[in-house]
User: Which sequence fits this backbone?
């Protein structure tokens, strides 16, 4: 029996066991993911690591109550025990569970998805990946003489299986690569930091693309750091701000996207609960969450409940259209399935998470957008931020520029951008007509103890008025 | 499986893996074995979710002189252990030398373990539901201002073992317990959230946590705009002072940042960095804290390190490699993905991290501090934006809608969202009062309530 057949057999045995023990629905997932990280700091390889993460997770529903258990023990006894524990949890907690999120059956899916990867990272030596970092750092040093340099390489690939009691059987082989470059410059009281990087659901051929070669990434990091040395302080107070695809994408993901996750909605924790049909933003605001986009980003064909991911319109021309769902919340709210039930690995139950979340494009050219801003701030990249469940956000803009008379003029020192997304959406004044979506191995989304889940975010350049700018 | 059996198991796996490493002719090997069982139960407005499972895995560092490779695997099966060793070895062969690396811990030496609550492994979902019931005791869920109430209980038990081919073989066990309740309340368009929690290494009393959260939530309703911009003193409750000070202090105590010249305090050893009354301790031996372990995650005994004493920076904290690079010794601060912002421990290389950093209690309690304020702000919730402070300059600008106006020693009214701007490093010299009421916060740093001057407050 091949390893794949052995795993499928274990998953089916888990499902059979659950059905015999009287659960309404049972799903067994297997992950076998290989992750590699290389950290080149000040020309020293501080980290060269390979992680194998494999195991099985079982989700059982009894009377609409879920229970989840997992095991890294890939044998019949380990899987049987995990199945038994999941069912016991579901049954033990059923009496207290008054908000049943059960769901009707959907047609079974049998699908095998393998990305067309030209240079799969598993076929390349460690030294070739390290060499990319060295090339990037070398390009960075051609731009300035940094005090400290950082080069990070990350890759993830492997296999995922999903089997459930509806007869669904999905095999999926994800792959992702990422390179980040950073520099710190400290001299005579001057301090500057920068980061640049790119990731994709692709193979190493991604680093042959013109904009994402290691050399370009390193050179960009050096350039951004050099700019910071003579940067000027950002104008403070409420400013008209042009936010870049990555900055706008993060703001939308963190401050609005999470509010639209239906588990927060059904429990009343989201301030946009029960507001479908309400005008939340200006006519320029259309927000999308999508599994496979025409603009790149994360490639996510199915969620971890075996639901095909689609294109979900959260907000259309400012009007709230819907939320992001798992199967239970979709049925409770009488909504379409959106394929947003995701788990970071087999050690966690799937919960409602985003896929690729982005602003829809507008009709402005970049020149027209700058002209419309007139005087303000161009916020390009961020390093850290925080949001609240009330829509309040604060992000540290690590790369930004002053806009004067419709022209980008000077780089700005680090500054904070803050506001409340539900207020700010009313002040969106337009967007450019090009879309960029980013994803990556590093970073990712955190929720419910599941940190670092790969997501995509982006959009066009978006004009927002009334953004509070402070000196971070 | 009992905790004693867990210890026996992980030491056995560690020893066995080292034998495999010897068979594979790996010159030098460090094996980190991790085994943690956990159960989590949440009730969000009656939507109950539960999860349990066993996290098992091994992280291996293989060294050929100063060339190091790391690999990890989930599970303990022989095939995975051997392939992980081979992978770590092959990575080491192709890695450049790390000039700072001077070998793995070479002897078995341990310090004190923390509290182990032997009841925790026996708790099941029904027990945890009972804990939710206890949290809700005395709580009026018929109040029309209540939008949502949540309960959560987490338990874990297990440990890790560390073995090296140089002769270290040791283990550390742990039990943890956490319970929390969270409410969302609203009135006349004003919407507030509030929580209360307990955490520690043993089961704690949880009665009334929900009522406490509700009381705080309701007190925060009816908030008014601050109106303008003013430099004022700020008084921080213990659990809010903790995250406020975590960000400036946890990074500047880093010995790796010191060695790599990234630490903004790299030239300040022996200098006064805070007010005289301020003493900061990195605590790895207080038995009540999760950070109390007999060894750190590379086998060095944990210890208590006074980093700042009476305002003077005394030392940084180190793991073995960075301690030796600084011509000092490890302070038992090698961490692997545990605690704040951490990943999966056995998938993580040891890095320098805090144990439990403690601001030493000094004097007045919270009420006494409020009574001394002519006009100021009481902070009662964790502000947004603490991550965004500039690590080099220390400038910060944060916002919160969990704050109250204080006038003439009395709390006047809750405030709508305000921003607080200042500079972390100046803040440390602008401490007015250090309180006497330090609570466990769940952050890497715990502090008593504290009063600062010089913060700019604005709408």
Assistant:
């Amino acid at each position: 029996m091949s390893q794949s057949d052995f795993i499928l057999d274990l998953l089916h045995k888990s499902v059979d066991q659950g059905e015999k023990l009287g659960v309404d629905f049972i799903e067994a997932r297997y992950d076998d993911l290989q992750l590699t990280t290389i950290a080149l700091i000040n020309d020293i390889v501080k980290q060269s690591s390979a992680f194998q993460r494999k195991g099985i997770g079982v989700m059982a529903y009894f009377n609409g109550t879920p229970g989840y258990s997992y095991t890294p023990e890939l044998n019949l006894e380990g899987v049987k025990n995990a199945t038994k524990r999941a069912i016991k949890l579901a049954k033990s907690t059923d009496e207290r569970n008054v908000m049943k999120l059960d769901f009707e059956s959907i047609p079974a899916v049998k699908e095998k998805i393998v990305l067309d990867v030209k240079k799969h990272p598993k076929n390349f030596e460690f030294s070739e990946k390290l060499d990319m970092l060295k090339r990037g750092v070398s390009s960075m040093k051609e731009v300035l003489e940094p005090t400290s340099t950082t080069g990070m390489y990350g890759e993830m690939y492997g296999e995922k299986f999903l089997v459930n009691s509806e007869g669904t059987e999905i095999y999926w082989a994800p792959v992702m690569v990422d390179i980040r470059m950073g520099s710190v410059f400290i001299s005579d009281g001057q301090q500057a930091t920068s980061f640049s990087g790119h990731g994709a659901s692709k193979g190493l051929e991604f680093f042959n693309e013109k904009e994402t070669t290691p050399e370009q990434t390193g050179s960009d990091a050096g350039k951004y750091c050099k700019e910071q040395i003579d940067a000027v302080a950002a104008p403070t107070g409420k400013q008209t701000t042009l936010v870049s695809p990555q900055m706008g994408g993060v703001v939308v993901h963190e401050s609005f996207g999470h509010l639209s996750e239906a588990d927060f909605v059904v429990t009343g924790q989201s301030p946009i609960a029960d507001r479908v049909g309400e005008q939340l933003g200006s006519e320029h605001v259309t927000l999308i969450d999508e599994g496979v986009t025409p603009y790149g980003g994360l490639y996510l064909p199915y969620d971890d409940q075996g639901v095909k991911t689609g294109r979900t319109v959260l907000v259309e021309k400012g009007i709230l259209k819907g939320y992001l769902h798992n199967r239970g919340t979709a049925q409770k709210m009488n909504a379409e399935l959106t394929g947003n039930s995701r788990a970071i690995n087999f050690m966690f139950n799937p919960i409602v998470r985003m896929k690729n979340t982005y602003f829809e494009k507008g009709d402005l050219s970049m020149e027209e957008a700058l002209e419309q801003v007139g005087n303000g701030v161009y916020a390009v990249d961020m390093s850290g931020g925080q949001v609240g469940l009330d829509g309040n956000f604060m992000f540290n803009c690590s790369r930004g520029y002053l806009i004067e008379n419709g022209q980008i003029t000077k780089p700005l020192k680090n500054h904070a951008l803050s506001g409340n997304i539900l207020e700010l959406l009313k002040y969106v004044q337009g967007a450019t007509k090009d879309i960029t979506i980013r994803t990556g191995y590093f970073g990712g989304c955190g929720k419910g103890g599941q940190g670092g889940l790969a997501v995509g975010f982006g959009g066009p350049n978006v004009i927002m008025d009334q953004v509070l700018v402070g000196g971070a | 499986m009992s905790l004693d059996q867990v210890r026996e198991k992980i030491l056995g796996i560690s020893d066995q893996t080292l034998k495999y490493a010897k068979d594979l002719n790996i010159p030098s090997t460090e094996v980190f074995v991790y085994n943690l069982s956990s159960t989590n139960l949440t009730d969000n407005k009656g939507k109950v979710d539960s999860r349990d499972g066993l996290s098992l895995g091994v992280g291996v560092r293989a060294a050929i002189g100063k060339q190091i490779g790391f690999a990890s695997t989930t599970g303990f099966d022989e095939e995975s252990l051997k392939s992980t060793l081979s992978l770590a070895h092959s990575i080491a062969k192709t890695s450049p030398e790390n000039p700072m690396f001077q070998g793995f811990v070479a002897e078995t030496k341990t310090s004190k373990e923390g509290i182990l609550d032997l009841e925790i492994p026996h708790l099941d979902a029904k027990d945890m539901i009972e804990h939710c019931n206890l949290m809700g005791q005395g709580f009026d869920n018929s109040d029309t201002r209540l939008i949502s109430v949540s309960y959560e209980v987490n338990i874990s038990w297990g440990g890790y073992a560390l073995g090296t081919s140089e002769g270290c073989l040791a283990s550390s066990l742990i039990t943890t317990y956490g319970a929390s309740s969270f409410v969302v309340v609203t009135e006349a368009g004003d919407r507030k959230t509030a929580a209360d929690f307990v955490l520690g290494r043993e089961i704690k009393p949880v009665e009334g946590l929900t009522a406490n959260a509700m009381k705080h939530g309701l007190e925060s309703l009816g908030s008014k705009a601050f109106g303008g911009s003013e430099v004022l003193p700020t008084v921080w409750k213990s659990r809010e002072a903790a995250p406020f000070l975590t960000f400036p202090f946890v990074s500047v105590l880093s010995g790796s940042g010191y060695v790599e010249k990234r630490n903004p305090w790299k030239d300040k050893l022996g200098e006064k960095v805070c007010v005289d009354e301020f003493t900061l301790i990195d605590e790895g031996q207080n038995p009540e804290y999760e950070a109390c372990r007999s060894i750190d995650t590379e086998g060095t005994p944990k210890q208590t390190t006074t980093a700042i004493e009476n305002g003077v920076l005394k030392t940084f904290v180190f793991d073995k490699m960075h301690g030796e690079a600084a011509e000092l010794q490890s302070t038992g601060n090698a961490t692997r993905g545990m605690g704040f912002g951490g990943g999966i421990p056995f998938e993580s290389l040891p890095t320098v991290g805090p144990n439990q950093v403690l601001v030493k209690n000094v004097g007045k309690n919270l009420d006494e501090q409020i009574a001394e304020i002519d006009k100021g702000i009481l902070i009662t919730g964790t502000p947004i934006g603490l991550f965004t402070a500039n690590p080099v300059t220390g400038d910060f600008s944060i916002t919160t809608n969990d704050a109250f106006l204080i006038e003439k020693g009395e709390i006047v009214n809750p405030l709508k969202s305000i921003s607080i701007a200042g500079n972390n490093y100046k803040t440390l010299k602008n401490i007015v009062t250090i309180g006497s009421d330090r609570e466990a916060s769940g952050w890497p740093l715990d502090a008593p309530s504290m009063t600062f001057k010089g913060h700019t407050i604005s709408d």
About this structure: Chain B is about 20% helix and 35% strand. The first strand of chain B starts at residue 28 and ends at 44. The radius of gyration of chain B is 24 Å. The CA atoms of residues 145 and 158 of chain B lie 42 Å apart.
